[in-house]
Amino acid sequence: MTNRQIHIVELPKGKLGPEHFRLAEGAMPQPKEGELLLRTRLISLDAANRAWMQGATYRAAIEAGQVMAGGAVAEVIEARAPGFAAGDLVFADTGWQDYAALPARHCQKQPRVEPMSHLLSVYGVAGLTAYFGLLNVGKPKAGETVVVSAAAGSVGVFVGQIAKLKGCHVVGIAGGAKKCAWLKEELGFDAVIDYKAEAVGGALKKAAPKGIDVYFDNVGGDILEACLFRMNMHGRVACCGAVSQYDGAAPAHGPRGIPGLLVTKRLTMQGFIVMDFDAEREKALADLQSWVRSGQVKVPEDIMTGLEKTPEALIGLLAGDNIGKRMVRVS
User: Fold this and answer.
1) Residues in the chain with pLDDT < 50?
2) Does the domain spanning 125-275 belong to CATH 3.40.50.150?
């Protein structure tokens, strides 16, 4: 048996393109003692995949010639470690390939849920990032205004819905009339700003007339700057990502005015990753499961099929093609 793999053949100096990847075939991996042989089922596509190509972050940098890194839901084919058995589902950094042999300590066992894709969206990194970033970092109160950028993306769709559940006035920022209409009509956002069609700073005056209490930032750059200038006293900024700076040339300048605004408005600006809140994971999952069952939280997903589609899927995600969590079904 062979193992299809997607290799990163060259690290991009500008925008990511198909030429930076190639489909290859490797030998079937053999698990050692303490390892699991995994068959990749669903690969998670995230803007962070692109950030890893720029250098070390909360994980090691990706290097040319490697199998492209990425998290996935995978099925255990052979277990050479206690606590696991063939047929178990796990979340692991399998990379973009059909099979992987990994230490069991690096694999997180997953429950059987239908559809399985929910393990990567609402019950996975996307849903948990939205939950913890909004509730633990943003700390919204009923009646406050919450603004979220990349609002139609994998995290933003859940941030907005959870904020509505908490009684907040919710403003989304997204690109394109189709996405903006969908956020209002399907997910119940109070207002949505199309950053491709209007200046965000001016649009915020109408969409958030009382100012911003919580800003959930997924993009950085000019949109972060525009939101900072509309923050209320003691506002909170949850810094989740900076997708505007991941792909292509570096911006001419960073958000301006931060030191003065932080002081004069007594703002709290905090970066985070989902692993910071592992101790509270079970409560978060219980809440998310309850909200999904009751229909209070909808789960939009964007699923492509075929390992060979992973480069296209990531390039499209960076261009904003997706609505909801993007993933690739491998098997």
Assistant:
1) none
2) no
